[in-house]
């Protein structure tokens, strides 16, 4: 998973990877909200310095694409202020877990725990909350889960058993 690494065309839409097909998109500006939480990296090994145990939270509204290879979010091309991030690209196999939340008050949302890519600007423990403003979220969650299984199994439809 990488922050601000998505290649975009002149219309600010993602350029497909080889053999990549769009499954679902919400391509009207500001209809999707991504809230990204990135923990500071803790000191590792015998190091005495590192992250302070805090976290960075970023929230943007924009567009979303789900392909057979990745989940992509982009912010509007033009805006009044510079966004905290312009794009987020998450390979389907980097989604460690997903949780559909239905709060008593407020809109449904999904939380994804994500494995960061080396040098992608994110750390272990990163998660993202996704909210839709113009439609229900349930259909998207179902399609996302089916896409993850398909990618994980190479199209066989069943997850591999771990030995």
Structure described in brief:
GO terms for molecular function: chromatin DNA binding; transcription coactivator activity. With 163 residues, the protein is mostly beta strands.
Give structural attributes.
163 residues; mainly beta; PH-domain like; nine-stranded antiparallel β-sheet; 1 helix; 9 strands; 10% helix; globular
Folded structure, characterized:
The chain is mainly β and 163 residues long. The chain has one domain: Roll (PH-domain like). The chain has one helix and nine strands. It has one helix at 138-153, and strands at 2-3, 22-26, 32-39, 55-67, 70-74, 87-91, 95-101, 109-114, 127-132. Strands 1, 2, 3, 4, 5, 6, 7, 8 and 9 form a nine-stranded antiparallel sheet that branches. Strand 4 and strand 5 (70-74) form a beta hairpin.
């Amino acid at each position: 998973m990488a922050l601000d690494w998505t290649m975009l065309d002149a219309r600010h839409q993602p350029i497909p990877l080889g053999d990549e097909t769009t499954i679902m998109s919400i391509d009207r500006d500001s209809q999707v909200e991504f809230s990204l939480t990135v923990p500071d990296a803790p000191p590792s090994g015998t190091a005495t310095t590192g992250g302070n145990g805090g976290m960075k939270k970023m929230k943007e509204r924009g567009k979303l694409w789900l392909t057979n290879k990745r989940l992509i979010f982009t912010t509007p091309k033009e805006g009044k202020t510079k966004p905290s991030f312009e794009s987020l690209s998450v390979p389907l196999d980097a989604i460690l877990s997903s949780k559909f939340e239905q709060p008593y008050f407020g809109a449904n949302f999904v939380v994804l725990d994500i494995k960061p890519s080396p040098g992608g600007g994110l750390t272990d423990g990163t998660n993202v909350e996704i909210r839709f403003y113009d439609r229900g979220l349930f259909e998207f969650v179902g399609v996302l889960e089916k896409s993850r299984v398909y990618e994980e199994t190479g199209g066989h439809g069943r997850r591999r058993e771990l030995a």
